[in-house]
Amino acid sequence: MAPRDTFFRSADMSLTQLYIANEIGREVVSALGEVGQVQFRDLNPDTNAFQRTFTKEIRRLDNVERQLRYFHQQMEKAAIPMRSSSDFSDTLAAPLASEIDELADRSESLEQRIISLNDSYETLKKREVELSEWRWVLREAGGFFDRAHTQTEDIRQSFDNDEAPLLRDVEHHAPRQNGDTQGQQSFSEMNIGFVAGVIPRDRIGAFERILWRTLRGNLYMNQSEIPEPIIDPMTNEEVHKNVFVIFAHGKSILAKIRKISESLNASLYGVDENSELRRDQIHEVNTRLGDVGNVLHNTKNTLDAELSQIARSLAAWMIIVKKEKAVYDTLNKFSYDQARKTLIAEAWCPTNSLALIKSTLQDVNDRAGLTVPTIVNQIRTNKTPPTFVRTNKFTEGFQTIVNAYGIPKYSEVNPGLYTVVTFPFLFAVMFGDCGHGALMTLAASAMIFWEKKLARTKLDELTYMAFYGRYIMLMMGLFSIYTGFIYNDIFSKSFTIFPSQWQWPEDIQAGKMVEATLKEGYRYPIGLDWNWHEADNSLLFSNSMKMKMSVLLGWCHMTYALCLQYVNGRHFKSKVDIWGNFVPGLLFFQSIFGYLVLTILYKWSVNWQEKGVNPPVS
């Protein structure tokens, strides 16, 4: 008897033992992985993961994978698109060990290069922000100093009374100076110092309160808003800030102001009281800003160029590293024969695929130039094999729905085969609209027509879910057109394809109830008569019909599912399952729901008007 390999039952599986030369172990696993029909057993279940043979290689690949993730994060930060992995799907062969080593070395050097450029860029960006803030402080400080010079008395009154006589005495005896002060005394002559800087706007209120309470009002403060937001180089977010200048007397008070400012994330900058010197400072800051901007632009271009170069191959590198990790993880499941220097593996595979697996192993041997072949032995075992159901792009979605509830036992009837019909049909019984069903069919057909293009496109989660279930949507749409035709429903409207079996009396009087009568010798060919949509008892009739039809369909669905239990019992030759499970379950189910279905069918099949009695109340 030929091995079974159909969608009705899972494929026949064989347990095989492989003897692989140590030199080609990696190449063999990689080739079998591309075939995708082999499940290896772990022959070292008691060995710790850190004590296995290829742990060192896996750790190295973990580091490479971390570096690739870092590249991807930097590309997202710089808004540089990555080449799609679908562009490499037909060209990615199993790499040589030397190519993996080369990739690891290249990733290491690229990481150091990107980190160095990033550090330089962040340092320059931080310096640019500092210079920009300093320029704003220098611009606003002129107005602050002018107002402060005109309000010397207010500043004196802002300090303690103990200090006031000293200030007045200094002011009285100090010589007048010419220049930008125009006869006014400088703050240094009055022994008044100041602190200037920039602080986030959301902290200015707390800043003022803390200063007032800490210094007991011994300060004079001016502050203004910076009109444009400043980009924080650490978070790359916009921050609104204020410029402030605080006047106070005494070195200890000024030191306290500086500490409080720094604790609230304020940046302090040096400002000269003399307007000529401030103009020189602004000119110097502008010059330095221009130089920093040029270097920053060149650094950014270099960084983007490096990331763009990486983006061309990053998707392929990620796939290669993931495959390589899977290869070494699988090799860790093998046992090693020290005497023969041979890897020994056990694996489940479909019996029908044994020839393909042997030819794949022979190809690997031929490419490696080994004279000793890889030996494949079939092992007789009482262990339960894993379930393997072959699917295609049409049945894959339906099988996924079944697997979500539970994977079928090995060799039992696969419910996925029946789900191809029952799932979309039961949906259509609920949906039941020709128009909306046609729209669903068109949408699914479009995804099927352009499926190759869509498969290479990066889709969002919702669109990918619809694309993955495109054949399910197609079946649901087709069945919805059919049930909508039965319900005589298109976009919630009826359509009159055939003449109605009901006729209304000709002498209709306004305000009186009219009852339609059946035509002699004619019945509506298929589905619901469109005249029901115009009747007053339309909702009562349609709801009753659909409810009873749902009961009938549910009974059919559950009955055939119970019958599958009998088929499985026969297949496994289990009389206990047949007589102890199937028969009692079927009798119990039919005695309740079977009786209900019979009464519904009986009520529908009898002409109660001819009998002259009312039908049973439903």
Q: What would you note in describing this structure?
A:
- The protein is an alpha+beta fold.
- It is 56% helix and 10% strand.
- The protein has 19 helices and 13 strands.
- The chain has helices at 25-35, 55-77, 97-150, 152-158, 164-173, 204-215, 251-263, 275-311, 314-331, 354-368, 396-405, 416-431, 434-449, 451-455, 461-468, 470-487, 538-572, 575-605, 608-611, and strands at 13-21, 39-40, 192-200, 220-225, 230-231, 238-239, 241-249, 267-269, 335-337, 342-350, 375-379, 502-503, 517-518.
- The strands form four sheets. Strands 1, 2, 9, 10 and 11 form a five-stranded antiparallel β-sheet that branches. It has a four-stranded antiparallel β-sheet with strand order 4-7-3-8, with helices on both faces.
- A hairpin with a 4-residue loop joins strand 9 and strand 10 (342-350).
- Helix 1 crosses helix 9.
- The radius of gyration is 42 Å and the shape is flat.
- It starts with 12 loop residues before the first strand and ends in a 7-residue tail after the last helix.
- Mean pLDDT is 86; it is low at 160-183.
- It is found in: Membrane.
- One of its GO terms (cellular component) is fungal-type vacuole membrane.
